[in-house]
Amino acid sequence: MDTFVQQLINGLTIGSIYALIALGYTMVYGILRLINFAHGDIYMVGAYAGFLLATLVFNSEPSIFAFVIVLLGSMAIAAAIGMAIERFAYRPVRKYSRMTTLITAIGMSLFIEYLFVFIFSGTPRSFPQLIQNDNYTIFGSATISASQMLIFAVSILLMITLQYIIFKTKIGKAMRAVSFNINSAKLMGINTDFVIAFTFAIGSALAAAGGVLTAQYNPKIEPLMGIIIGLKAFVAAVLGGIGNIPGAVLGGLLIGAAETLVVGYGNSIGIPSTYRDAVAFAILILVLLIRPAGLLGTNVQEKV
Amino acid sequence: MKNFFLAVILVFSTLFSSACVDKGANTTTTGGDTGGDIKVGVYGDLTGGTASFGQSTKNGVQLAVDEINAAGGVNGRKITLVIEDDQGQPQQATTVVQKLINQDKVVALLGEVASTNSLAAAPVAQAAKIPMITPSSTNPQVTERGDYISRVCFIDPFQGSVMAKFATNTLKAKTAAVLGDNSSDYSKGLTQFFEQEFVKLGGRVITKQTYAQKDQDFKAQLTAIRQQNPDVIYIPGYYGEVGIIARQARELGMNMPLLGGDGWDSPDLWKLGGASLKNSYISNHYSADNPAPEIQNFVKAYNAKFNVAPDSLAALAYDAAKVLADAIKRAGGTDSAKLKDAINATKDFKGVTGIITLDANRNAVKSAVVLETDPSASKFNFKETIYPEGMSAPADATSNTNTMMNSNTMSNAGMTNSNSMNSNMMNSNATNLNTNSTMNANR
Predict the structure, then answer these.
(1) CA distance B215 to B241
(2) Same domain, B161 and B145
(3) Who wins on pLDDT, A116 or B7?
(4) A267: nearest CB among B48, B217, B224
(5) Closest to B47 (Cβ–Cβ): which among A122, A126, A259?
(6) Residue B173 neighbours by CB under 8 Å, 6+ apart
(7) Complex ipTM over 0.90
(8) Could you report the per-residue pLDDT of A103-139, keeping only the tens digit for each?
(9) Better-predicted residue by pLDDT, B312 or B395
């Protein structure tokens, strides 16, 4: 039982990170019907921005203050980069077919990855410890570390904030309107370009928060760290129903828990632990077969 | 906007083209056996996930070649290096080795560190009949790729057994868990050989877990291991993952010793793992603490040149380059068949990492050292030397037991013996460091 609880904690930790990244996928999809493949790399950019801030600006003892500054700083930097990507890569091709934007997104992803390899080299860097990483025993021998608690706390906080922005603010209303129908929204006088840029900013900031939180939990960062985690977050978004925000969170947590349990218990039933990545994609295939719109998604007929 | 993109593209193409010009400058001399400079290809992971391996290897080779050239070269000819980055990827290793052979016309190859990459490149070298010496790939299959492939390090059956012996005899471990890297031939080999020997010595491997390179989270595997509560955990992986594994294991309250191999040996290990690496041991090729003058001279020269202490990969690369130069001298040129024979006939070559003699399978038969981690100083400390079966340790070591505490006379005897018998220098280390035990696999 202890072991099961421990595995669940482990799984929900990475699940929360998947959820944070999945939110960005799902919001952009909701508004532009675009799978932003560069989104996983924004997670990496966020981790590197945090790394630079933490090593260049704060070279001091671990403190929660430094952590908050690094977290907010990297979220701001990533938001700016996310907006820049939208402005310079996606907006110019938005008027062409959706496929054009999709291919641009793949190109953007590779560009960011190898730009970072070019700048920082592929050598893994070690992220400085900004908070005291103590361990707490919570249930039998199940332990939770400070960095894990931080992941839970910050992700819940960010998700509540996001929910507030979308449902209680004017810009949130505009986002919902654009996602409902971009042309009508434009006719109603909504500045859709701004709303889209804002969506990219929020999504990128969430991914960057995921990057910094992961780096506190697991201090190895490298330029290609966003590929697999980005794909899994994408799967999480599809699993929950792409375009659906609670669905992205649910999908992220499910994928995280599922792959951890497979690694933890798969060995005894003959599934090697290296199948952890396969699990996420197996789940994706199953969901697409059984419920193509995702767990919480609603099936919308394409208008012709 | 279009202008902006054009500008970006222009800037990048200028950057890349200038990089190409730089590379071109290295390769203007004609290759082959024309009496000019001797061109040697070096390939390794300079920018990927195991970049410190490639950097150390490059530095070690560079130091050796600089020394050789400063002393007048080989047979009056200077050695020039053509260095390629394979980013730690097997496909890339194949590509750069093809480039080194076909475009740069190198006469011999030095590399890789990771066995998976050496295994990918070896068939290319074998097919082109270009001798390839891998400094530090320990998987036995590497040299089985053909008679043009050789190595100056020991192989994994020995390395795996060293840790099994150490765990059983010194740490008194009865049960072990293995957490191996399923994407690396090196790790898979070590897992197998560790288990074989550990079971033979009466131990039990209670659980085997695996991960893949670039995984970020190991807590699921570690939690499964924690449930079984083994005496030790054997983690035959590379430093990038090992640092994180150690950290996450300690976070889960697992404080048993962690054991590993030479894949841990990197300055980056300490940055990633920090204090959680305490109470861990690795098998390795040499110890920079060894007071033998050959080793200390090398450590000093390396430190002066690169401003960092040499890890075992740098030492092996240095030895590999020296072995190659020695073989070129004995072959009287760079004719590939003659050079291959000369390399394979290497006997009693005195290297930094020990006396190098290639056996019939072109593997070096050498002793291994066990090192203990010291995270506070970010270094490994010498623990003990373990000899392969059939290789006799210096006489005094053979006659002494595990718990030998040496007196001055004994360490003197050890020094003279190891010199006169031409056997491994490590022994003088064992006896000089005073706190350590020496054991013999023959016992």
Answers:
(1) 8
(2) no
(3) A116
(4) B224
(5) A122
(6) B167, B203, B230, B231, B232, B257
(7) no
(8) 999 999 999 999 998 898 878 888 888 888 788 888 7
(9) B312
Out of B3-17, B178-192, B354-368, B393-407, least confident range: B393-407
Eight-state DSSP code of residue B364? B
Q: How many domains does chain B have?
A: 2
Give the torsion through C-alpha atoms of B181, B182, B186, B192, to 10 deg: 100
Instruction: Please give the average per-residue pLDDT across B99-110, as a whole number.
Output: 93
What is the tally of structural domains in chain A?
A: 1
Identify whether the C-beta of residue A109 lies closer than 8 Å to the C-beta of residue A94: no
Residues B60 and B313 sit within 8 Å (Cβ to Cβ): yes
A55–B contact, CB cutoff 8 A: no
Instruction: At B61, list the tokens.
Output: 């080779």
State whether A263 and B221 contact (CB < 8 Å).
yes
Q: Which of A11-15, A36-40, B33-37, B103-107 has the lowest mean pLDDT?
A: B33-37
Q: Cβ of B223 and A3 within 8 Å?
A: yes
Q: Does A218 touch chain B (CB under 8 A)?
A: yes
- The CATH number assigned to the domain holding B113 equals 3.40.50.2300
Domain range for B349:
35-154+295-356
Res. B19: pLDDT tops 70? no
All residues of chain A having their beta carbon less than 8 Å from the beta carbon of residue B208 are 267
CA angle in degrees (0–180, nearest 5) for A90-A92-A97: 75
The structure tokens listed for A270 are 């003959």
Q: Which tens digit of pLDDT belongs to each residue from A210-252? A: 999 999 888 889 898 999 999 999 999 999 988 888 899 999 9
End-to-end CA separation in angstroms for chain A? 54
CB-nearest partner of B51 from A123, A135, A137: A123
| The residue type at B45 | D
Coil/strand/helix, residue B54: helix
* DSSP notation for B112-131: -SSHHHHHHHHHHHHHHT--
Same domain, yes or no, for B62 and B127? Answer: yes
Q: What residue in A sits closest to B47 (Cα-Cα)?
A: A122
